[in-house]
# Entry
Amino acid sequence: MSHSAQHAAGNLRSIVNMLLAVMFFSLMDAVLKTLSTHYPPLQMACLRGATSLPLVLAWIQWRGGWHTLRQLRWSLHILRGCLGITMLALFTRGVSELPLSATYTLFFIAPLLITALSVLVLKEQVPKAHWWAIAVGFGGVLVALRPNGEDLQAGFITIGGAAILGAALCYAVAAVAGRLVSRTDSSESMILSGMAFMGLGGGLLAAPGWVPLSMDHAGLLLALAITGFLGQLTINEAFRHGQASAVAPFEYTALAWGVGLDWLVWQTLPEAHTWLGAAIIVGSGLYLVRREKRISEVHASAEHP
# Structure
């Protein structure tokens, strides 16, 4: 098989995994939104980690991956764990107020934040055009927030909207930390530490306001465990085999899932300004991906004339 054919096969496999990951995480978010009316945000962060932890342990045992846990950069794992708890608590707070479609629209700012943070933390070179795309993306967030001074409660300038933007920032910082830790540590260690910190750390923080679990929610908690675990596995596979520039655009299919679940479960549809803001944010994100792909192709052709 030629080098280009291998790339194409790897990309196709990764795209399928990304589509599956978006589906699983969207279903997980719908479960989070449903449970958020019964349990506080920090407790939901704990339940997200604790319910998936047995599945992660079984997966590591099945892979025979315990030896990969010997080398850990604890400072980065602790940072990612704290960010994970904060992100999920903020996300749960936001999704309890906003429709999934609006939540995803605001959260789509995360890839643009990752690009900006990569310059500051990883010292990556980002062309000037990328900064324009990031600025346009932030403009899209403002459109989605609809800061027009009229009927602010109808727009998304609420605690929920601010919580989602805070969650996106935590996700972006965690993603950059993940890039650093992945240079030396295994994917098993990254998944295990993330779920363990969320389950144990989130549980300690949630303990003072803990709400007893209801047996009526056993099915939802099982769904939370399975969708979260499968989402984590498939998104890892998505970026393992294919080029990030080919795979990343398919993250935006989350908006379709958000709209569909909003309509099926909660009988709501996005307002016009949400669609417009989403179009601007997604457009700027896709522009960044296309530019990145062109740059990588130029570098590849220069190295292999």
The two ends are 19 Å apart (CA to CA).
